[in-house]
Give the backbone structure.
Amino acid sequence: MNLIRGKVKHCVRNSDSLYYISISTGMSIATIYRKALDLMNYGLIERVSKGHYVITTKGVLLLAMLYLSNDSSINREVFELAVDKLREDWNLEEFDRNEVINYLKLLHKGLSKLGLSPLHVNINTLGKSIYYILPEGIGNGRGSLIHLIAEYLEVGMDEVRSAERVIAKALLDYLPSIRLRDGCKAVVLLTGEQSIRASPTILAIKCRIRGYSLSGDCPIALSLIRKVFND
């Protein structure tokens, strides 16, 4: 773990050499090499050229989750560097660091609820991560998605709202979506009694005016979606 933590601290955006890590950490080249093999086997780092390695998305996610688990070996600086690397890997650079941290807190809750370690799950994309915070029955119309997630993870609704935009993007990456003529992109579910009449409900949307949201109150998008389903 010292090796992977050192890699994040010294080279979040570039490859690092075993020699440089040896100098930085004080460990011998032989020890560094053995640890590098172990980390590669876990998928936490990967080799990009002879003697040069980069930390993977799984590696930085593990560091972030360890910090949120109050692991004293991960300090705030390393955590924030890991978060910034995840913003890059998950294409979240338009979101500020705090939004991403709030989303990671929900993900940490979800993994903990399922008794899973990020070391043993492959969450290499934002879309894959959303699976671990979603409750069952999100399309049954029994409440807003923000309420359902808060209830499932046993957190306050404000905690979910603080990560709403990231959740919306994750859903758009994870589930099939439709692109509307006005430029909006939405994940749409059919809710209600399908044997009688199901109605389209916006689960997540990227509105060209309002941006990412879990709210389906965009009148233009709703009008276009209803027209698509009625046609």
Q: What stands out?
A: The two ends are 57 Å apart (CA to CA).
